[in-house]
Design goal:
Elements: H1 15-18, H2 23-28, E1 34-39, E2 42-43, E3 58-59, E4 75-81, E5 86-91, H3 99-106, H4 113-116, H5 122-140, E6 151-154, E7 159-162, E8 170-171, E9 176-185, E10 188-193, E11 205-208, H6 215-227, E12 235-242, E13 247-255, E14 270-275, H7 295-304
Parallel strand pairs: 1-5, 9-13
Antiparallel strand pairs: 1-2, 1-3, 4-5, 6-7, 7-8, 9-10, 9-11, 10-14, 12-13
């Protein structure tokens, strides 16, 4: 099966160097260092958002003094080291809060990751997704959940530490597990539309895992809650990092025991059974399939082609 989009491959997270107090100085001295610039987690693209061209801006350390932005005042994260060398992400929002001002100084544009990322290579998308997830986690956990004091960033972005000496609690990156499941019955697949989807799009079902339940239980519960269908035991297929804002999508396939649909109108606008041979023709009828970069499309295409 194909590699998932947003999945980092052959990336050494380099946990030993992350714990060094001078990790920035060490990496800045490496000629092969690459730097991804972000603003509130969104990476910088070489072209404005209204231009149909997408290229991630990746700089070397030698470019830093020539920028009209003080990168050293931004928030730095060490993403890791691949076959090319080390990669750092720098979020400049602490230096330039106004995104339009940042664009004027740097050129290009930040834009919407969901649409712009699809044009990137898998490796670039994986790095950008990792940076976005960590920066989002930092913004949502600026204060200690135990005592309310401010947290400081340590270990190259992978740990937050409470600044209260009487507390000193460590906080680690949060990843929310979510199940996404293709439900089928004989040669038909269940597709549904959420009001949060892009216009005219349908997809497979998905939902977050609740405390105290297994992944398989979450699949069965979500399917029954959203469309009133009971399933046989779900089988795991694949997973995908999903940085919106910081989830891990766990993909399953399951056969339906019942086929009558009763939708939860707060979650689902409509749901329908579609024959295997009709799936690829849905766009001809004005019904859009999930984006190719999503695990939803991955599950759907592999089921349609009888690979799962």
């Amino acid at each position: 099966m194909d590699r998932q989009f947003y999945e980092s491959v052959d990336l050494d997270r380099d946990a030993v160097l992350r714990k060094s107090d001078n990790w920035r100085q060490i990496l800045l001295a490496e000629e092969s260092l690459r730097i991804v610039i972000c603003h509130e987690g969104d990476p910088l693209f070489a072209w404005p958002e209204d231009v149909d061209a997408h290229e991630l801006v990746v700089l070397g350390a030698l470019a830093i003094p020539h920028l009209d932005v003080d990168l050293h005042g931004g928030e730095w994260i060490y993403l890791g080291r691949d076959g090319t060398g080390p990669v750092i992400a720098v979020d400049i929002a602490p230096v330039i809060a106004d995104r339009d001002d940042a664009v004027r100084r740097l050129g290009g544009g930040f834009g919407d990751m969901r649409s712009r990322m699809a044009a990137l290579s898998h490796d670039e998308a994986g790095l950008a997704a990792q940076a976005r997830a960590l920066f989002n986690w930092h913004r949502g956990h600026q204060f200690c959940g135990a005592c309310g004091h401010e947290n400081r960033v340590t270990e190259a972005g992978y740990r937050l530490e409470c600044t209260n000496p009487d507390c000193g609690k460590s906080h680690f990156p949060r990843t929310d597990p979510a199940v996404i499941m293709l439900i089928h019955h004989q040669d038909r697949v269940l597709l549904a539309r959420s009001p949060h989807f892009a216009p005219s799009m349908v997809s497979v079902l998905a939902g977050f895992v609740e405390p105290g339940e297994t992944l398989e239980q979450a699949v069965a519960r979500e399917v029954y809650e959203e469309v009133g269908i009971k399933i046989k035991r779900a089988q795991y297929v694949a997973s995908q990092p999903w940085p919106f804002p910081g989830s891990l999508m766990l993909g399953f396939i399951a056969e339906a025991e019942t086929t009558d649909i009763t939708i939860d109108e707060e979650e689902i606008e409509f749901a329908m059974w579609v024959h295997r041979d009709e799936v690829e023709h849905l766009p001809d009828k004005g019904i859009n399939l999930p984006r190719p970069i999503s695990i939803a499309r991955y599950l759907l295409e592999n089921w349609r082609l009888r690979r799962i």
